Amino acid sequence: MKLLEYEAKTIFAAHGIPVPKGVVIKSSAELAAHILDLPAEFILKAQVDVGGRGKAGGILMADRKNGGERAIEFFEKTIKGVPVHEILAEERLAITHEYYASIAINRSSKQALILFTDSGGVDIETLVKKRPDAIRKASIPLLLNRIPSFMLRDLLGSAPKELGPVIQSLYRVFLAKDALLAEINPLVTSATGVYAADAKLIIDDNALGRQGIIQNRDLTEREREAEKYGFSYVELHGNIGVIGNGAGLTMATLDLIEYYRGHAANFLDVGGGADQERVMHAVRLVAADPSVKVIVVNLLGGITRCDDVARGIISAGIPQPVIVRLAGTNEAEGRRLLAGSGYRMLESMEQAVLAAVEAV
Amino acid sequence: MIYGDRKTGVIVTGATGKQGAFHIALMNDYARKVGGRGVVAGVSPGKAGQEVHGIPVYNSIRDALREQDASISVVFVPAAAAGDSIMEAASAGLSLVVAITEHIPVHDSMQAIAYARLNDCVVIGPNCPGLLSPGEIKLGIMPVHLSSQGNIGVISRSGTLTYEIVDQLSRAGLGQSTIVGIGGDPVIGQTFTDVLQRFSEDEQTRAVVLIGEVGGSLEEEGARSTDIPIAAYIAGTSAPPEKRMGHAGAIIEGGEGDARSKIERLRAMDVPVASRPSEIPTIIKKMI
User: Fold this and answer.
1) Domains in chain B: ranges and CATH
2) Is A100 a catalytic residue?
3) What range does the domain containing A283 cover?
4) Per residue in B65-112, pLDDT tens?
5) Best label site of A5, A74, B130, B286, fewest CB within 10 Å?
């Protein structure tokens, strides 16, 4: 789950990383109440999770006189379609240089990968492609609870030593918060010191519980509903509903739909143990999307009982046609039940997908 | 077989849980069928003295090893404790751990895999269906009825998609040497590279099916590392960016790891990539 900038900054600050003075406001009245805590000139940063926020108009210069109006401006508009509910009002720094520091997970080395560059403030993915030499890297196994000094010196090169403790603290945040990514871009120097001018923190969805996070905000309402049943669900933009068991098989079903020039409305992986009730909930959930014209169910398993699955589909009682591919135990009984209720059952996933594409 | 054979003794951790107990029964059904030793002990802390389908349960792997001969553990422990279960196996001197458990926090996996490596213990998974060497040994949860004995290796990040492709191979008369599910998490123990290395040293295996998906670049790294003939299928050509497609590791991040660029890179290495799972047997037949 991605944290918002101010949430990440609160965590960074608690781990000793200096952040600019600021206040989070939810209305222009709240800004007025805090206006004297802010310097005469400050910046307003919309707290929305969108890439390229600055260019999309998510950051505005303000002062004590026009701050209230500018805040209202923000609350009334959207940034790349995302409404603004919170604004971070922050001191403006007299920046002398911008750096970049991040810690992420490297799948190939199975270690944390620390990146540092003295060309901060730019899109790091662009920099990786255009000037890979400008980026300094270090790999660190998670068995270490701190970055060894030689590694830190290597990372910094000729950059100011004051940045060292910030990167060290960033690693502590990474470990403490089960982070997939902890990033400061830009990490700035000014006349008064070193600051994390922006902050990004992504927490592992599998660690939300032990991090005390109850709800994953990255999910849409229907995705959250699906999570309650233990389904993996992703909303897409087509008209063919998809239910499968296993992430790979479900993805392959979507790919086949695309191969036959159809458009999937969703990805739904029912997971293991597809029994009658779970299948019923899955079918109802997918059918509740008004753009779904037909549903293809692709279930394959050693222990999946096809008669249970068939009962689940039938008991869902949805208006859209359902095309089923089932392989597992009690296949014949499942087939008999579905045929008796007017559902189509096909032998292979390709036949089922083709039939679904032709049905819309 | 590349990780174990019918003479290998197996310990199941999380043995008294619903999943653990259920799959002990299935693993030992298969062991009986092929004349193997199968699961010889279960481990569940605090449950020593109990039995699961006739298999003795111990409090720890060390306790089990005092009375039983085993070199592999299969982990069915719930996510919060599964990382520790991998480390327990490594610490006790087992040579292989197969971690079936899904939803392990990735930091736990990274620590457990690093610790296992220090103890010369190989980890398969987590979040995987395990492996099956038809006629020899089953470690994990793969259904056995779709497989058949032969000389095609299979490596996959997926579960059911693997069974789908194994079924198609079997129907086409292409039996399998070993089927390895390496897991759907972003950080896993054995990667395509490691398993391909084993297959290339295995006399039984003549060609390998590589089943990958969106996220990371382990498929390309694996293909680059070996000379053994490979046919690939990559799931997720229709996956949208920044969305997790069921598996924790199946996500296109920062424009990296999308299926199309993976496929392009594989084809640039002269690895044939199937557009549909059903094309795999035809491609393999041309190779061998």
Assistant:
1) 9-124 (3.40.50.720), 145-287 (3.40.50.261)
2) yes
3) 221-359
4) 999 999 999 999 999 999 999 999 999 999 999 999 999 999 999 999
5) B286
Token pair 């019923």: residue? A280
- Amino acid at residue number B90: A
Q: How far off is chain A from B181, nearest CA to CA, in Å?
A: 11
Interchain proximity B80–A249, CB inside 8 Å: no
Sheet holding B230-235, edge to edge: B137-140, B130-133, B176-181, B149-156, B207-213, B230-235, B273-274
Judge: A247–B245 Cβ closer than 8 Å, yes or no.
yes
Closest CA to A102 of A231, A201, A215: A201
Q: What is the DSSP letter of B240?
A: P
* Integer Cα distance of A183 and A125 in angstroms: 13
Q: What is the per-residue pLDDT across A100-148, written as a single tens digit (0 to 9) for each?
A: 999 999 999 999 999 999 998 888 888 888 888 899 999 999 999 999 9
Look at residues A185, A207, A229 and tell me which one is the last residue of a structural domain: A207
In this predicted complex, what is the ipTM? 0.93
Could you say which of A5, A86, A91, A183 is catalytic? A183
B-facing residues of A in 334-353 (CB < 8 A) are 348-350
* pLDDT bucket at A303, cuts 50 / 70 / 90: low
Residue A254: its chain B contacts at CB < 8 A?
A: 236, 238-239
List all residues of chain A from 5 to 64 with a beta carbon under 8 Å from chain B. Answer: none
Q: Among A47, A70, A91, which residue terminates a domain?
A: A91
| Shared domain check, A225 and A355 | yes
